[in-house]
Every structure is written in C-alpha cells, then in structure tokens.
Write a structure and sequence with these properties.
Layout (H helix, E strand, L loop, with lengths): L14 H8 L6 E4 L2 E5 H8 L5 H12 L7 E6 L5 E7 L1 H10 L7 H12 L5 H5 L4 H9 L4 H14 L4 H24 L6 H13 L3 H8 L3 H4 L8 H21 L5 H26 L13
Antiparallel strand pairs: 1-2, 2-4, 3-4
Helix pairs in contact: 2-3, 5-9, 9-13, 10-14, 13-14
Length: 298
C-alpha cells in the first residue's frame, strides 16, 4: 500500500490527523476499504514528544499486551528510509492508547492532547468498549472540528426537553468534571482503570442503586439509559460532581500510582462523605433526589 502522511485539515479530516497537525508530529496512515489505520509508534512518539524510537517501541511493547484493540501489520517507512511492517490501529485504538499513557513532566504535550481529546468526547465508557455500537454512531461526531457548534446543539437539545438554564449549567459543568475524573482515573492507575466500578460505587452510595437499578427506577428506555445523567435532578448532578471532583483531587494529591481497588475505594469514601448532606437537602426542599419531582406532603 502507498504510504500517506498528514493532510491539510478539512471538514472530513479524521480527529487523529487534526491532533497530529495541531501538535506538529508525523502520523502515517493507510486507508483500507474506507477506514483509516494509523501507525501506533508515530502516535505514541507524537503524544509524548519522543524522538527516541527505541523508547517508543518499548512503551508500546509493554502496553500492547494490556490492551484489546484492532491491530494491523502494515507498511511503515522508518527514519532510515527502509520500509517495515509495523502495528497500525484505528481511531478507537489510538484513543485507548492515549488514555493509557501517563502525564509526566517529560511529556509536556500529553496533558493538552488528552484534554483536547476529552473535549471532543472520546473518553467515555461506551465509546471505549463500543458498547451497543456507540463508537460507530459517534465516529462522525469525533471528527467534528467545531466543538463550539456541537455545544450549541447540545444546549438546544436540552432546551427542547424543557430543561431550565440552571439545570443546563449544572449538567454542562458536570460533563467537564466527569472528563477530569475519567482522565484522573487513567493517569493514576497502574493498569486499565475500572471505570464502571468507580461509577457504580459512587451511585451505590448516593442513591443506594447501581446504574441498571437507577435506569429501572426512572423507567428509562435503552436509548435514554445511554445518557443517564441527562435524566437526573439538579441536586443529584451536583452530588455526583462533588464526589467525583473530590475523588479526582484526592487521587492526584496522593502523587503515586494507584490500583483499581484503591481508586474505587477513594470514590466510595468521597461519596459516603457527601451523601447525608445531599439527602438532607432533598428532604428539606421536598423532592425526589433522582428525578427532582416534588414529593407529596404527608
């Protein structure tokens, strides 16, 4: 196959190439039956600002066995001008690799790139696993170059649901906090984080229900369940953001690599601390914590 390099940005430019262009690193790729497959070593080298290819190869060698991604052995021209068979993967694989890399002082661009990817919406659990085809449906959205316009569409959608400005403001802030929380889990974990476990342990403490039980309690459809937090009350959203933000702060302040179990325990501890106050507030203002509906006075 003919080797291809970075192309100028356009409406159809895939997000990985936009990142490579923005941070000025080479990202070779092939297009096979309409799908892009990118050179993994190029991606890692660009994310961590590394010129030492041996170091990059060692990083990928260690990470490879811990990840479940689609890998294709395709032609890649090395620094010596020779063509080698190298590992390539799709956009989903690149995002998983980015998520697995830890931010350090010697990787100045990595944090900015991860934040950029987070704002594009690539670090979400369903996308990571392609659960219910989420990655396939979101592929076009991930390639969007105008996040401001996407945000306007989101806000317009909430207003069509008759959500007031206060709820919208809290929800959008919660999305930002959730991205920070997800990034913190990835940056501080000694392996692939237990995103579902960390999420459900918080829900269990605050609502005494895990996600599946909350979905059932609210009577949500399968489609609605994918955006569970769009159906929670303002107070519930505030509670979740509070313990996730506190957990993120605690994990980073510890300044060391954590196990999955330690991360989940920190989330649980933070949720335990804020839960009594949130429930007292819900009772005081007379609402159901989950839905925000007024309770009938006895």
């Amino acid at each position: 196959m003919k080797k291809q390099e970075i192309v100028p940005k356009s409406v159809s430019t895939p997000l990985p190439l936009i990142v490579a262009d923005k941070w000025e690193f080479k990202l070779n790729f092939h297009v096979v039956e309409g799908e892009h497959f990118y050179a993994i070593e190029d991606w890692i080298a660009g994310l961590i600002s590394a010129s030492n290819r041996l170091a990059v190869q060692n990083i990928w060698k260690k990470a490879k066995n811990k990840m479940v991604i689609s890998i294709h052995h395709l032609d890649h021209v090395g620094p010596d001008g020779k063509t080698y068979k190298k590992d390539h993967t799709d956009d989903h694989g690149l995002y998983l690799i980015a998520q697995s890399l830890r931010v350090t002082k010697t990787r100045p661009a990595l944090r900015a790139i991860k934040d950029y990817l987070a704002k594009a919406g690539v670090f979400v659990d369903n996308l990571r696993t392609n659960k219910d085809g989420a990655r396939d449906r979101l592929r076009g959205d991930l390639n969007a170059e105008k996040p401001d316009e996407a945000m306007e569409e989101i806000i317009a959608g909430y207003r069509r649901q008759r959500r007031n400005d206060s709820w919208i403001d809290i929800r959008l802030k919660g999305v930002g906090n959730r991205l920070i929380f997800a990034n913190t889990l990835a940056d501080t974990c000694n392996t692939r984080p237990d995103f579902a476990g960390a999420t459900n342990t918080g829900y269990k403490e605050l609502f005494d229900m895990v996600k599946a039980e909350i979905v059932k309690a609210l009577g949500l459809t399968k489609s609605q369940a994918r955006k569970l937090r769009d159906h929670l009350s303002e107070l519930a959203l505030q509670g979740i953001s509070l313990y996730e933000s506190a957990a993120s702060h605690k994990m980073r302040k510890l300044g060391r690599v954590l196990t999955r179990a330690e991360q989940v325990r920190i989330v649980r501890d933070c949720a335990v601390m804020i839960t009594p106050g949130i429930h007292q507030l819900a009772e005081y203002i007379g609402i159901d914590l989950l839905s925000g509906k007024n309770l009938i006075a006895e």
